[in-house]
User: Fold this.
Amino acid sequence: MRMTEPTATSHSFLFVDEENAPLRVLLLEDLITDAELIKLQLRKLNVEKEIKHVKGKEDYLNALTTFKPHIILSDYSLPQYTGMDALKDLKAVNTYVPFIICTGSLNEETAVACMKAGADDYVLKDSMGRLPTAIENALENKKTLVLKERASYELKKSEEDFKALTESAPEQIYKLNSDGVILYANRSVSGYSRDELKGRKIFDFILEKNHERLKASITSCFKSAKKQKIEIEGDEDDPNSAWHMCSIGPVLKEGKVFSVVFIPANITQRKRAELELRDLNERLHNLTQHLETVRDEEKKKIAMEIHDQLGQELTGTKLGLYWMQQHLKQKGLAEVDYDQLQEKIEYLINLSTQTIATVRRIAHELRPVVLDDIGLIPALEWHVENYNKTHEVINCHLKIDTGKMSFTKDFSTAIYRVTQEALTNIARHAKAENAYIKFYKKGDKVHLEIEDDGIGMDLEKARKSKSMGLFGMRERIKKWNGAITIESDSEDGTQIHIVFEIENLK
Assistant:
């Protein structure tokens, strides 16, 4: 139920409703002489005043509604009407108008009864000099009472308005004290009802790493009465954890911070995106470094092959040719040993053939020529054949069913490198006996499946370690919106399944 605002008439030193109005005094007195005596005392009040004198009940009741007095002075004993009756009738109309009994005599029991009934004071007629002070005190006391009740009303109304506003708000809203204790919550949360949330600390619902910063923000809001902003962090490794950007605002009462409003706005989606972007940038940076390292290692390997293998073969060719030159110079054509010369020529032919093979192998390691010359399918077949030759403990099985499809140069390179990377990982880590590669068309999709019967791998560990092999695969297929799924366990080995929409390959 909404309470009714207290109302009261007032004068210059009472309320603010009628600042410039004269003090209206209603005097209930049946004796003219006593009334004049009271009026004489009222002159001592240094305020503008208006006095209405009534002698009986009917005029009194009429004056309550038409004259609207600021204060009532009443005799206790009247013909067929008493001061207690007048007080009771006043309370039925307005409880905020001060009521003072002016009487010739009043025993102690009657005085106590009057005060209990709501009289503000009583003044004996033989001590009338106290009347001005009694009036001022009564007016001031009523002023304090009205202001207090008005403040209480406004506070309750403000709280009701606050609840009406917050309960229709889309955000979770709390009211906290300086210790972070929840005084109010606009809705249930985390399995707690609104009533169960009251009395608990807000810190119970956030990770411990945020506690000190939140405590400092609440304390700062209480001290400065200024709004605060704070980000409540979640757990990056927990997919159910949430991030919130929280506003903390002061609730003022009589110029002091009475409590704070705490509004957490969920920013998990944005924060997750930021973290993913940060992680992606870090992975791309690491991938770039990884590729540079691989490139340097490949250059070093090729340089050693050229120096050691190709250099040795060319040196052998040069020495053979030099021997032939010297042999011809020394013997001449007439005395040359043709059998020895023929043997040297055959040696040089074999050495040249070996050199050509070395050059082709080095060139192929830089980029498979077959990939450019006759396309992806023969390149995969050649790579699997060569893989089986160089890895005797692993038997790789290849099955291709793509019909008459043709593939772009970039896509062919991506599929070749993904297959190459996967087979390299199987050779290094899987301890497998068999590897299976399937490249096929099904409906409007192209599938690449690479499996092994090895010991599997810890996918979560691989994800956290930011494996460049798996990340590199994802990056290679991203251009064609390829979807990759990886499954692995110690019994069934590892399965990599990549799917492309055919329309994305054009």
Remarks:
- Confidence is low (pLDDT under 50) at residues 1-16.
- DSSP finds 14 helices and 17 strands in the chain.
- The first strand starts at residue 23 and ends at 28.
